[in-house]
Write a structure and sequence with these properties.
Helix content is about 25%, strand content about 50%. The chain is α+β, with helices and mostly antiparallel strands. The protein has one domain: Protein Transport Mog1p, Chain A (3-Layer(aba) Sandwich). The strands form two sheets. A seven-stranded antiparallel β-sheet has the order 3-4-5-9-8-7-6, sandwiched between helices. A three-stranded antiparallel β-sheet has the order 1-2-10. The longest helix has 17 residues. The protein starts with a helix and ends with a strand.
Length: about 170
């Protein structure tokens, strides 16, 4: 009887060890504008952004990854966005999170070029305040702007998962 319990316990431990915390899979935008790895099926949403080029609609796919949220936003502009417009979109994102940029470098992803930023801030107030971190790639390809981002409690998502998510993004 003890051997049977041990076998069941051992098998349960093995199965638990084989079950990944996050089930990364490729997700494609319905309009075919991009593909990216996400830890589960994302939800869809849209929001209107006020920009110097006028109001634009950002289409987004996002999902939870542990204590973090990962997502991709897409905006189609009438003309290729200039540096001032891109800086304004970056600054609005940072301001929305009450954060400050700690790293900013040039990157490219599958034909799209732009910036990878890391920003830190806090959510909540007083004793309930939590340190948050944003890692994002803000990219353009032609007239299309992509915002590939992960935000959550600092350290909640392992760096390897963040790197994989950001690097997996491919514009079409």
């Amino acid at each position: 009887m003890r051997l049977g319990r041990f076998v069941v316990l051992f098998a349960s431990i093995l199965l638990a060890a084989c079950s990944p915390a996050l089930d990364w899979r490729e997700v494609r935008a319905e309009d075919g504008s991009f593909a990216v790895l996400m830890p589960q099926r994302p939800g869809k949403s849209e929001r209107t952004l006020a920009t110097p080029a006028g109001p634009v609609v950002m289409r987004m796919l996002a999902t939870r990854a542990g204590d973090s949220v990962v997502g991709v936003g897409v905006v189609d502009f009438a003309a290729a966005p200039d540096t001032a417009l891109l800086d304004g979109l970056r600054d609005a994102l940072i301001k929305n999170l009450n954060a400050r940029i700690v790293s900013d470098k040039a990157v490219s992803n599958g034909g799209a070029t732009g910036r990878e930023i890391v920003a830190v801030g806090s959510a909540g107030t007083g004793d309930a305040a939590t340190s948050i971190e944003l890692r994002a790639r803000l990219l353009t390809a032609g007239t299309r702007y992509f915002q590939v981002a992960a935000v959550g409690r600092k350290g909640a998502l392992p760096d390897a998962d963040l790197d994989m998510f950001l690097a997996s993004f491919r514009p079409n």
